[in-house]
Amino acid sequence: MGKRSRRTVANNKKAFHDYTIEERFEAGIVLTGTEIKSVRKGGVSIKESYCKVTSKGELVVTGMHIAPYEQGNRYNVDPLRVRTLLMHKKEILKLYGTIKTRQGLTLIPLSVYLDEHGRCKVEIGLARGKKLYDKREAQAKRDAERKMDKAVKASRHR
Questions:
Q1: Strand pairing partners for 95?
Q2: In 3-state terms, what secondary structure has residue 25?
Q3: Class of domain 7-130
Q4: What pLDDT tens digit does each residue of the chain (158 aa) get?
Q5: What residues are paired with 120 via a beta bridge?
Q6: Which of 105, 117, 116, 56 is nearest to 85 (CA)?
């Protein structure tokens, strides 16, 4: 099978800084007509959003901002409304069990993208929060790699 074409609309770069991603999942999302038009234009932000399983057993995303569509008029909905994510019931229950049994895990949206059929999908990560020293360690590692790359590049140009 070839690589599926997907167009990323929004990334959650902050999630990779604040969390260690243990597992990734793909979920569909329930949107209205004006919301999907806004998503296609790139009007999505998932910086402060998170996912949770409701008492009804549904997976929802909270804090995802989808900008109102300009030509939407009265059909626009609340930009920060809670949106339902679509996954198989078994998968949702497995996620719920994992979060309840293992302390410190949370569900974070990592990216929003359009698949090859034009449907909006959300990539969710099962994440564990990083401690401050972990963040410093990761930053130091990135700085060291950057310095090495610079040194290699400089040595090539001599």
A1: none
A2: strand
A3: mainly beta
A4: 445 678 888 888 888 888 888 889 999 999 888 888 888 888 898 888 989 888 888 999 999 988 888 887 777 888 888 999 999 999 999 989 888 888 888 899 999 999 888 889 999 999 888 777 677 878 888 888 898 888 888 888 76
A5: 114
A6: 56
Q: Strand, helix or coil at 66?
A: strand
Query: What Å distances lie between residue 39 and 43, 63, 72, 77, CA to CA?
Result: 5, 15, 13, 13
Closest by Cα among 138, 157, 158 to 146? 138
> 28: closest CA among 124, 107, 100, 102?
124
| Residue-range domain boundaries for the chain | 7-130
DSSP-derived secondary structure letter, 70: G
Annotate 29-44 with DSSP letters as a single string. Answer: E---HHHHHHHHTT-E
Q: Is the dihedral of CA 22, 24, 30, 33 positive or negative?
A: positive
For tokens 């996954």, the residue is: 87
